[in-house]
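=== Structure Prediction Worksheet ===
Name of assembly: unnamed complex
Input type: mixed (protein and possibly other molecules)
Chain count: two
Listed entries:
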Amino acid sequence: MIFSQVDTILQQICPSGFKKPVLIGVSGGPDSLCLLDIAYRLGYPLIAAHFNHGLRPEADADAAFVDRTGATLGVRVLQGKEDVAGYAREHKLTIEEAARLLRYRFLFTQARLNSAQAVAVAHTADDQVETVIMHFLRGSGLSGLKGMVMVTLPNPWSQEIPLIRPLLSSWREEIVRYCQDRRLEPVEDRTNLDTAYHRNRLRHELIPFLERFNPQIGKVIWRTAQTLSGDDEILAQAVWSAWEGCLAAQGPGYLAFHHSSLLMQPRGMQRRLVRRGIDRVLSGLDDIGFDIIENAVNFINTPSKTASLSLAAGMYLLLEGDRLWLAAWETELPGFDWPQASGTSPIYLDAPGETPLPHGWRLKTDRIATDDLPASFLTNLNDYQAWSSAECLHFPLSVRPRRPGDRYQPLGMEGKSQKVSDLMINAKLPRRARKAWPLVCSGEDIIWIPGQPIAHRFRIQPGTRQVLYLQMYKS
Amino acid sequence: MIFSQVDTILQQICPSGFKKPVLIGVSGGPDSLCLLDIAYRLGYPLIAAHFNHGLRPEADADAAFVDRTGATLGVRVLQGKEDVAGYAREHKLTIEEAARLLRYRFLFTQARLNSAQAVAVAHTADDQVETVIMHFLRGSGLSGLKGMVMVTLPNPWSQEIPLIRPLLSSWREEIVRYCQDRRLEPVEDRTNLDTAYHRNRLRHELIPFLERFNPQIGKVIWRTAQTLSGDDEILAQAVWSAWEGCLAAQGPGYLAFHHSSLLMQPRGMQRRLVRRGIDRVLSGLDDIGFDIIENAVNFINTPSKTASLSLAAGMYLLLEGDRLWLAAWETELPGFDWPQASGTSPIYLDAPGETPLPHGWRLKTDRIATDDLPASFLTNLNDYQAWSSAECLHFPLSVRPRRPGDRYQPLGMEGKSQKVSDLMINAKLPRRARKAWPLVCSGEDIIWIPGQPIAHRFRIQPGTRQVLYLQMYKS
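=== Predicted Assembly ===
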């Protein structure tokens, strides 16, 4: 039963069949011994890899046992050993974390060196159930509740070599029976160092307790994991496609979403996009708290007046126009894609001519007879060009940043002039672009704020014969 | 705290604000009393509806208490009462199921009669946690693990009136404190008749036990529900769009998928589509087992030779060409979209002329001089027309179904003739279409099987002057 089941699974998940070796992590316990024995009988080329955590008195005896087992079968055994406790101290990890990290690093290093097609570990259906319950108790969402998967690629240790779990549908009971039938004599099963204590309480206290509520609890949870695993795959596809639609920019330490696209997504998708975004900006954050995500999603849906939100872990959200930036505090945001004046002193303009401004922007001016005005003058849809009556201007014109007290009345805007600073806020200019936004002046008068219509006073009027054409563009 | 929280929630979820009444289900326990009191203080027009299950000695006293509470507040109270136990016996339901069914029916009937904007029930954050754990123990997948939602519309009782749960983010502890602060004196809380026993064990045994593993277990599970609820929304969208892409036909008791489209979906999506399909074909099946879905999905990915699979619950899958039928056994599948001979005796053909066949199909014949052959003769892409040398035919031609021993060699097919029955299988003719598939005969010889090239023997050859054109079509 278990033999043919694992046979079928191995056929499905071994990428190169019998051509390249499968590297099996063998602790010497019943699970890994059973896996080794079945794969051996099926004729797969094998490497047994044993990692000695050096944490228990019997560790060396276990290593020797795996050596003997390999010798009996004629399977090569690779031994690894490191100072787990020391590594844990040094890197501020728990013993379990350090053990896991060093073990998998060993397995995948050996797999690479020996051109293995896969690293196989002996997690069972019972391990799966325990994993799911552990995640349920921790509240880790779908990605945790789906449990482990049969094939993981890419995985944290390799882009090419899959991590496979051929026993994931097999119950410990069948494995123990298999070992008995085959007269295998595994060492005592203490393989699973990860959170061993927690896991043992789960196994010996919680699961029996849950069985009082549902005697089939193991099977039920195993199935839940299967189902959720499939759901997670669907979600991953959906998130991927939403991500593609919402991402506006990304770079080291930052990314930007199209805010309007985010708003069209259901809340659950917003959550997942933010989570993925945070993961991109500050990869390696293990547990992004529920509240952080909720705050971020609330901000997306009702951005505060200050247009920015500090997230934990040294990140923030910043809304600029339709761009929602997600960035680490220390990152310099890119995308100074706005015209800017340079410094505080005015730059004088050639008219006609072109004047270079910072960040590759240029201000072009031209004189046109009113009769020669292009039709676009009337249907001007580009905020970065304007036509002024040349006759009321004092040359040379200049470009400067705003000053306290600056006021402006754009053409067509009813009523009186308004503060330039207010106008910039209303026009949703990004905060960091406002300070040096270029104002085109004639003497002391602002004749044009690029992005706005020409100043009312300097508009073309009946009787205007000479027109000054202004255009701001990026070369 | 709870007051302002519920205020915010009611503003978000009450579709018509203060214009139409909210009907609140009031048992008289702390939860519903708290909800009633808050909504009353916020100024919502209210109706209190009490359903007397008549199951407990204090039932009538509880009803009277709700009457008095309504009178004190000046809120109208509607009383409902039915013989729950009798209804349960009659309809073979558990007491809990019957109580729930009758209670919600009462609430929504009254909501409709009184033009209420919503039916509000007082499920709390604790109820949410209990619900999620209950589903976890049962293995009910994402749709169960996501718990209850704040607003359900459509719901099983109405397409227009939402079922709302304004206390779903409030913990029982806050509610009890609120009742004390407001000097409300609720009756003993035994409102939740649904699976009361199971729920009580959950509340008093399991949750305290789980708290030993994670003291925050309640909050953690509540958050899991929130997150999964968002995920479920994304999934629903994805499933909806895949459903649209895969559905080929549907009617009472059956539906069909495009098999090729199903095959392109990930396994998790196939599961969900099958589940939804089963739900459509036999609505009201409460629990479609995991194994049924897995069998169906396995069949989809590797259809067996017999091309059909019996599912439980009186349903089956049937693969016909690219159509995957999902149907109840007693349903007559539609779509006899194939040409068929009628009965077993031959139908004689007019040539030239048109002969009607069953199901609206017609067989048209025409005599053409070889010189007048259309160009399409050479590039014939329509399986339902053919050209034969008229000179070798014996008129009148006839149409009949296959007989044991029939053989055929299509033009261009190498080698010898093959059994007609094998040819039909190879050509992937639907099983139920094969038996009466029309064969066009000249005397005892089959000259054409519609869907196949003309018989080799009757092809146009050098020297053929008269051609018989054959076309099968549906009018």
